[in-house]
Amino acid sequence: MPTARIDASLEMHYLIDDYTDPWREAETILMIHGNAERGQAWYGWVPHLARHFRVVRPDTRGFGESTPMPRDFKWTIDLVIDDYLSLLKTLGIERFHLIAAKLGGTIARHFAARCPERVLTLTVAGTPPPKWDRMGAKAAHATEELEKTGVERWARKNMAGRLGSKFPPEGVEWWTKLMGKTPLSTLIVFGETIPYTDITADLPRIQCPTLVITTEKSALGSVESTRAWQQTIPNSELVVLPGDSYHVAASDADRCAEEVLKFITRRQKPTVAADER
Questions:
Q1: Was domain 3-276 assigned CATH 3.40.50.1820?
Q2: Of the candidates 43, 50, 48, 44, the residue with the CA atom closest to the CA atom of residue 20
Protein backbone atom coordinates (compact mmCIF):
# COMPACT_ATOMS: atom_id res chain seq x y z
CA MET A 1 0.00 0.00 0.00
CA PRO A 2 1.85 3.16 -1.15
CA THR A 3 1.97 5.92 1.45
CA ALA A 4 3.86 9.16 1.93
CA ARG A 5 4.80 10.74 5.24
CA ILE A 6 3.45 14.28 4.90
CA ASP A 7 4.04 15.48 8.44
CA ALA A 8 3.99 14.14 11.99
CA SER A 9 0.21 13.82 11.91
CA LEU A 10 -0.33 12.35 8.44
CA GLU A 11 0.62 9.24 6.54
CA MET A 12 -1.10 9.79 3.18
CA HIS A 13 -2.25 6.81 1.14
CA TYR A 14 -2.33 7.15 -2.62
CA LEU A 15 -2.75 5.13 -5.82
CA ILE A 16 -0.93 5.60 -9.12
CA ASP A 17 -2.33 4.23 -12.37
CA ASP A 18 -0.07 4.51 -15.41
CA TYR A 19 -0.65 2.51 -18.58
CA THR A 20 1.01 5.00 -20.92
CA ASP A 21 3.66 3.96 -23.43
CA PRO A 22 6.85 3.36 -21.42
CA TRP A 23 9.07 5.15 -23.95
CA ARG A 24 7.39 8.53 -23.54
CA GLU A 25 7.14 10.91 -20.60
CA ALA A 26 3.50 11.11 -19.59
CA GLU A 27 1.84 14.10 -17.98
CA THR A 28 0.21 13.65 -14.58
CA ILE A 29 -3.39 14.01 -13.47
CA LEU A 30 -4.04 14.64 -9.78
CA MET A 31 -7.56 13.62 -8.70
CA ILE A 32 -9.18 15.09 -5.57
CA HIS A 33 -12.17 13.15 -4.24
CA GLY A 34 -15.18 14.57 -2.41
CA ASN A 35 -16.30 14.53 1.19
CA ALA A 36 -16.48 11.10 2.90
CA GLU A 37 -14.71 9.43 -0.03
CA ARG A 38 -11.24 8.21 -1.00
CA GLY A 39 -9.14 7.84 -4.13
CA GLN A 40 -10.96 4.61 -4.92
CA ALA A 41 -14.00 6.72 -5.84
CA TRP A 42 -12.40 7.48 -9.23
CA TYR A 43 -12.45 3.82 -10.35
CA GLY A 44 -14.70 4.55 -13.37
CA TRP A 45 -12.41 7.26 -14.70
CA VAL A 46 -9.14 5.36 -14.52
CA PRO A 47 -9.54 3.11 -17.59
CA HIS A 48 -10.15 6.19 -19.73
CA LEU A 49 -7.37 8.36 -18.33
CA ALA A 50 -4.52 6.03 -17.39
CA ARG A 51 -3.71 5.03 -20.98
CA HIS A 52 -2.84 8.66 -21.69
CA PHE A 53 -1.72 10.06 -18.31
CA ARG A 54 -0.10 9.06 -15.07
CA VAL A 55 -3.07 9.22 -12.69
CA VAL A 56 -2.45 10.00 -9.01
CA ARG A 57 -5.37 9.33 -6.64
CA PRO A 58 -4.62 10.28 -3.04
CA ASP A 59 -6.81 9.70 -0.02
CA THR A 60 -7.18 13.20 1.38
CA ARG A 61 -5.97 13.79 4.95
CA GLY A 62 -8.29 11.97 7.34
CA PHE A 63 -10.09 9.94 4.67
CA GLY A 64 -9.74 6.46 3.22
CA GLU A 65 -6.50 4.77 4.27
CA SER A 66 -4.83 8.05 5.21
CA THR A 67 -4.44 8.88 8.91
CA PRO A 68 -7.77 9.78 10.57
CA MET A 69 -7.97 13.26 12.06
CA PRO A 70 -9.10 13.95 15.64
CA ARG A 71 -12.14 16.03 16.55
CA ASP A 72 -9.97 18.99 17.57
CA PHE A 73 -7.98 19.09 14.32
CA LYS A 74 -7.74 22.59 12.80
CA TRP A 75 -8.82 22.18 9.20
CA THR A 76 -8.04 24.82 6.57
CA ILE A 77 -8.28 24.59 2.81
CA ASP A 78 -4.64 25.67 2.42
CA LEU A 79 -3.44 22.95 4.78
CA VAL A 80 -5.18 20.34 2.61
CA ILE A 81 -3.52 21.81 -0.48
CA ASP A 82 -0.15 21.78 1.29
CA ASP A 83 -0.66 18.04 1.80
CA TYR A 84 -1.12 17.50 -1.93
CA LEU A 85 1.92 19.64 -2.71
CA SER A 86 4.02 17.58 -0.31
CA LEU A 87 2.85 14.38 -1.98
CA LEU A 88 3.62 15.77 -5.44
CA LYS A 89 7.10 16.79 -4.27
CA THR A 90 7.69 13.27 -2.96
CA LEU A 91 6.63 11.86 -6.33
CA GLY A 92 8.75 14.35 -8.28
CA ILE A 93 5.78 15.96 -10.03
CA GLU A 94 6.02 19.66 -10.85
CA ARG A 95 3.08 20.36 -13.20
CA PHE A 96 -0.18 18.47 -13.51
CA HIS A 97 -3.79 18.44 -14.63
CA LEU A 98 -6.21 18.76 -11.74
CA ILE A 99 -9.59 16.94 -11.55
CA ALA A 100 -11.96 17.12 -8.59
CA ALA A 101 -15.51 16.22 -7.57
CA LYS A 102 -17.98 17.54 -5.01
CA LEU A 103 -16.19 19.34 -2.17
CA GLY A 104 -12.92 18.40 -3.83
CA GLY A 105 -13.89 21.00 -6.40
CA THR A 106 -13.88 23.72 -3.76
CA ILE A 107 -10.35 22.73 -2.79
CA ALA A 108 -9.28 22.40 -6.44
CA ARG A 109 -10.52 25.83 -7.51
CA HIS A 110 -8.55 27.44 -4.69
CA PHE A 111 -5.58 25.20 -5.58
CA ALA A 112 -5.58 26.37 -9.21
CA ALA A 113 -5.81 30.03 -8.17
CA ARG A 114 -3.04 29.62 -5.60
CA CYS A 115 -0.63 27.70 -7.88
CA PRO A 116 -1.22 28.95 -11.44
CA GLU A 117 2.26 27.99 -12.56
CA ARG A 118 1.67 24.33 -11.68
CA VAL A 119 -1.89 23.49 -12.79
CA LEU A 120 -2.12 22.76 -16.53
CA THR A 121 -5.89 22.35 -16.69
CA LEU A 122 -8.68 22.19 -14.12
CA THR A 123 -11.84 20.08 -14.20
CA VAL A 124 -14.52 20.19 -11.50
CA ALA A 125 -17.43 17.77 -11.73
CA GLY A 126 -20.55 18.19 -9.61
CA THR A 127 -19.05 20.79 -7.33
CA PRO A 128 -20.73 23.32 -5.00
CA PRO A 129 -20.99 27.05 -5.67
CA PRO A 130 -18.00 29.10 -4.53
CA LYS A 131 -19.86 30.23 -1.42
CA TRP A 132 -22.34 28.25 0.67
CA ASP A 133 -24.56 30.10 3.13
CA ARG A 134 -25.40 27.15 5.37
CA MET A 135 -23.73 27.93 8.65
CA GLY A 136 -24.99 28.03 12.22
CA ALA A 137 -27.93 25.83 13.17
CA LYS A 138 -27.89 23.66 10.06
CA ALA A 139 -24.21 22.81 10.45
CA ALA A 140 -24.70 22.07 14.15
CA HIS A 141 -27.70 19.89 13.38
CA ALA A 142 -25.66 17.88 10.87
CA THR A 143 -23.04 17.29 13.55
CA GLU A 144 -25.65 16.12 16.03
CA GLU A 145 -27.12 13.79 13.43
CA LEU A 146 -23.74 12.28 12.59
CA GLU A 147 -22.94 11.68 16.25
CA LYS A 148 -26.32 10.07 16.83
CA THR A 149 -26.70 7.90 13.73
CA GLY A 150 -23.16 7.43 12.37
CA VAL A 151 -21.57 8.08 8.99
CA GLU A 152 -23.13 5.23 7.02
CA ARG A 153 -26.68 6.16 7.94
CA TRP A 154 -25.95 9.81 7.13
CA ALA A 155 -24.59 8.79 3.73
CA ARG A 156 -27.57 6.53 3.01
CA LYS A 157 -30.03 9.31 3.84
CA ASN A 158 -28.53 11.62 1.21
CA MET A 159 -27.60 9.07 -1.45
CA ALA A 160 -30.64 9.51 -3.70
CA GLY A 161 -29.81 13.12 -4.46
CA ARG A 162 -26.12 12.35 -4.65
CA LEU A 163 -26.34 9.63 -7.30
CA GLY A 164 -29.66 10.45 -8.96
CA SER A 165 -32.86 8.56 -9.66
CA LYS A 166 -31.44 6.22 -12.33
CA PHE A 167 -28.45 4.83 -10.43
CA PRO A 168 -28.75 1.06 -9.78
CA PRO A 169 -29.66 -0.02 -6.21
CA GLU A 170 -26.56 -2.19 -5.88
CA GLY A 171 -24.47 0.85 -6.84
CA VAL A 172 -26.21 2.95 -4.21
CA GLU A 173 -25.34 0.32 -1.64
CA TRP A 174 -21.69 0.22 -2.71
CA TRP A 175 -21.32 3.99 -2.44
CA THR A 176 -23.11 4.03 0.92
CA LYS A 177 -20.71 1.45 2.32
CA LEU A 178 -17.69 3.27 0.86
CA MET A 179 -18.65 6.59 2.41
CA GLY A 180 -19.71 4.91 5.63
CA LYS A 181 -16.11 3.85 6.29
CA THR A 182 -15.08 7.48 6.85
CA PRO A 183 -13.91 8.14 10.44
CA LEU A 184 -16.53 10.14 12.32
CA SER A 185 -13.89 12.40 13.88
CA THR A 186 -12.60 13.38 10.44
CA LEU A 187 -15.99 13.97 8.88
CA ILE A 188 -17.50 16.15 11.59
CA VAL A 189 -14.87 18.87 11.72
CA PHE A 190 -14.04 18.71 8.00
CA GLY A 191 -17.75 19.14 7.30
CA GLU A 192 -18.02 22.11 9.64
CA THR A 193 -15.20 24.04 7.97
CA ILE A 194 -14.14 23.19 4.40
CA PRO A 195 -17.62 23.36 2.77
CA TYR A 196 -18.08 26.91 4.00
CA THR A 197 -14.78 28.31 2.77
CA ASP A 198 -15.63 31.24 0.49
CA ILE A 199 -13.56 30.90 -2.70
CA THR A 200 -15.47 33.51 -4.74
CA ALA A 201 -12.41 35.74 -5.08
CA ASP A 202 -10.34 32.81 -6.38
CA LEU A 203 -12.38 32.18 -9.51
CA PRO A 204 -11.22 35.19 -11.59
CA ARG A 205 -7.63 34.34 -10.61
CA ILE A 206 -7.69 30.86 -12.18
CA GLN A 207 -5.43 31.04 -15.22
CA CYS A 208 -5.55 27.52 -16.64
CA PRO A 209 -8.23 26.22 -19.02
CA THR A 210 -11.13 25.05 -16.86
CA LEU A 211 -13.98 22.61 -17.44
CA VAL A 212 -17.07 22.59 -15.23
CA ILE A 213 -19.42 19.59 -15.43
CA THR A 214 -22.92 19.48 -13.95
CA THR A 215 -26.30 17.88 -14.60
CA GLU A 216 -29.60 19.38 -15.68
CA LYS A 217 -31.16 19.04 -12.23
CA SER A 218 -28.28 19.03 -9.79
CA ALA A 219 -29.21 19.74 -6.18
CA LEU A 220 -26.02 21.82 -5.89
CA GLY A 221 -27.48 24.51 -8.13
CA SER A 222 -29.41 25.13 -11.30
CA VAL A 223 -27.67 25.20 -14.66
CA GLU A 224 -28.14 28.98 -14.68
CA SER A 225 -26.55 29.49 -11.24
CA THR A 226 -23.69 27.15 -12.11
CA ARG A 227 -23.08 29.00 -15.37
CA ALA A 228 -23.04 32.29 -13.48
CA TRP A 229 -20.04 31.33 -11.35
CA GLN A 230 -18.40 29.31 -14.13
CA GLN A 231 -18.32 32.40 -16.34
CA THR A 232 -16.28 34.28 -13.73
CA ILE A 233 -13.43 31.84 -14.44
CA PRO A 234 -11.46 33.07 -17.46
CA ASN A 235 -10.96 30.55 -20.25
CA SER A 236 -13.60 28.16 -18.87
CA GLU A 237 -16.44 26.14 -20.33
CA LEU A 238 -19.49 24.33 -19.03
CA VAL A 239 -20.78 20.87 -19.92
CA VAL A 240 -24.33 19.99 -18.82
CA LEU A 241 -25.23 16.29 -18.78
CA PRO A 242 -28.76 14.92 -18.59
CA GLY A 243 -29.90 13.66 -15.21
CA ASP A 244 -30.63 14.67 -11.63
CA SER A 245 -27.53 13.55 -9.72
CA TYR A 246 -25.22 16.06 -8.12
CA HIS A 247 -22.31 13.63 -7.87
CA VAL A 248 -21.97 13.44 -11.63
CA ALA A 249 -18.41 12.15 -11.34
CA ALA A 250 -19.90 8.96 -9.88
CA SER A 251 -23.23 8.70 -11.70
CA ASP A 252 -21.72 9.44 -15.13
CA ALA A 253 -18.07 8.48 -14.71
CA ASP A 254 -17.53 7.25 -18.28
CA ARG A 255 -19.09 10.30 -19.91
CA CYS A 256 -17.24 12.68 -17.60
CA ALA A 257 -13.88 11.06 -18.30
CA GLU A 258 -14.53 11.18 -22.04
CA GLU A 259 -15.39 14.88 -21.81
CA VAL A 260 -12.19 15.55 -19.87
CA LEU A 261 -10.02 13.75 -22.42
CA LYS A 262 -11.57 15.77 -25.23
CA PHE A 263 -11.17 18.96 -23.23
CA ILE A 264 -7.50 18.42 -22.39
CA THR A 265 -6.69 17.41 -25.97
CA ARG A 266 -8.43 20.49 -27.33
CA ARG A 267 -6.89 22.90 -24.81
CA GLN A 268 -3.41 21.39 -24.61
CA LYS A 269 -0.62 23.69 -25.71
CA PRO A 270 1.52 22.05 -28.41
CA THR A 271 5.01 21.09 -27.32
CA VAL A 272 7.79 22.81 -29.22
CA ALA A 273 10.54 20.42 -30.27
CA ALA A 274 14.10 21.27 -29.19
CA ASP A 275 15.30 21.77 -32.77
CA GLU A 276 12.48 24.26 -33.41
CA ARG A 277 13.45 26.57 -30.58
A1: yes
A2: 50
